[in-house]
Amino acid sequence: xxxxxxxxxxxxxxxxxxxxxxxxxxxxxxxxxxxxxxxxxxxxxxxxxxxxxxxxxxxxxxxxxxxxxxxxxxxxxxxxxxxxxxxxxxxxxxxxxxxxxxxxxxxxxxxxxxxxxxxxxxxxxxxxxxxxxxxxxxxxxxxxxxxxxxxxxxxxxxxxxxxxxxxxxxxxxxxxxxxxxxxxxxxx
Length: 188
Prior knowledge:
Elements: H1 5-19, H2 25-35, H3 38-43, H4 45-64, H5 71-90, H6 95-98, H7 104-117, H8 120-133, H9 146-183
């Protein structure tokens, strides 16, 4: 059971990240509400997963190779990237184009930036260290190296985050539809 705790911590932090609106459920719900299609909210999970996984994988790789990561530098870089993207988006010629929703690449980028800015991968370090440097492997993974264990942890973390993100985004879309019907209003 002691070998299972780091894996449970990785999944638990993933579920916690799924509850955070900055990590994607608000974006996914907005996609679903804007298109009036709840399935669109679930389709938004793939780009959200790509961005979040990239951010967490950077930190997992740093843990495996023993590199130091400075959180302040990471936050300044992602904040600068966010500012550059905002300026680029707002500098479009027409106001209508500036109000256009983000595409899949934009959704992946904002997911990467949010996960990096608030230190999603850094939260996993206490669980990654015993996994990658200790003997906390699951059955069937005893021969796996530290990089394989780190990638498996990123996968478990992302799966837990996506499950919760999808549930919350779908619930928001469903709740808006039900409340609109209950109140007798049509959604614009």
